[in-house]
Specification:
Number of domains: 2
CATH class of the largest domain: Alpha Beta
Organism: Methylocystis iwaonis
Strand content: 5-15%
Protein name: Membrane protein
Mean pLDDT: 94
CATH architecture of the largest domain: 3-Layer(aba) Sandwich
Shape: globular
Radius of gyration: 20 Å
Largest sheet: 5 strands, parallel
Helix content: 40-55%
Keywords: Membrane, Transmembrane, Transmembrane helix
CATH topology of the largest domain: Rossmann fold
Number of strands: 5
Pfam family, one: DUF218
Length: 264
């Protein structure tokens, strides 16, 4: 039920969707007795879209998430395992086209290749089924397995978890799959913006991990900010960040993370 509710809420609360819904509501109300209110709402929706698309808002919301967990030092001790979260491929398009289609977070897949070659004895685990609300005949795990095979990654000791639909299930199913022992060091590879929520969920599941953030979307500060050439980039960044902030609150309120804003 939580999974279904979260998907519906995400659709309705996505910032650009919210602005469009406000504008559409205004148009509808303009044909009723609330005409004055209806005429004002589309203007407000356009103003909101302009702020989201051409102001520093997206960066200001995203940077604290990406800065929360810095990457480990280059000379860190060798890990016992490497966990890679899904969200890096389009499993449905990959299946229908019969070729691997990478998503924007493709570094979630490329970084572990280098890590596995640097730490060949570390166990490598990919976790991700499908996040489609109605399910899918294809899984991220199956697509990633094909991608890593095509780029020549040794598949001998790689494990794939293909049932999880969200990060909470990633943590629970991966824990049950690998059964980590006390004192083991496991790296968690996911997007930097997704890392605070992910670490909190894994901790709550009794699986302590070491953050290995990838897929950065900001420069880390606003010193080089300029008005973007394409509003769509700001929309995408803001939607990603808003998704994580709302997710942090929802997962904390439902007891799925150990803190509202998990820290190192």
């Amino acid at each position: 039920m939580f999974f279904i509710f979260s998907k519906i809420f995400e659709f309705l609360a996505t910032p650009t969707h919210f602005a469009l819904f406000i504008g559409a509501l205004g148009v509808a109300l303009s044909f009723t007795r609330l005409k004055r209110t209806g005429c004002a709402l589309p203007g407000g929706a356009i103003a909101l879209l302009l702020v989201m698309g051409f102001s520093p808002l997206a960066g200001l919301v995203a940077i604290p998430l990406e800065a929360r967990f810095p990457p480990p030092p280059d000379d860190m001790p060798a890990p016992d395992g490497i966990i890679v979260l899904g969200g890096s491929v389009d499993e449905n398009l990959s299946g229908m086209r019969n070729r691997v289609t990478l998503a924007e977070a493709a570094e979630r897949l490329t970084a572990p290749i280098a890590l596995k070659r640097q730490y060949p004895t570390a166990r490598l685990v990919f976790t991700g089924g499908t996040s489609a609300l109605r399910g899918s005949a294809y899984t991220e795990a199956g697509t990633v397995q094909r991608f890593w095979r095509e780029v020549g990654l040794d598949q001998g000791d790689v494990l794939y978890e293909d049932k999880s639909r969200n990060t909470f299930e990633n943590a629970a199913f991966t824990r049950d799959l690998v059964q980590p022992k006390p004192g083991e060091r496991w790296l968690l590879v996911t997007s930097a913006m997704h890392m605070p929520r992910s670490v909190g969920i894994f901790r709550k599941a009794g699986f302590p991990v070491i953050a290995y953030p990838v897929d950065y979307r900001t420069a880390g500060d606003m010193s080089g900010w300029s008005v973007p050439r394409h509003a769509s980039r700001s929309f995408g960044l803001l939607e990603f960040a808003a998704h994580e902030w709302v997710g942090l609150a929802a997962y904390w309120l439902t007891g799925k993370t150990d803190a509202l804003f998990p820290a190192p």
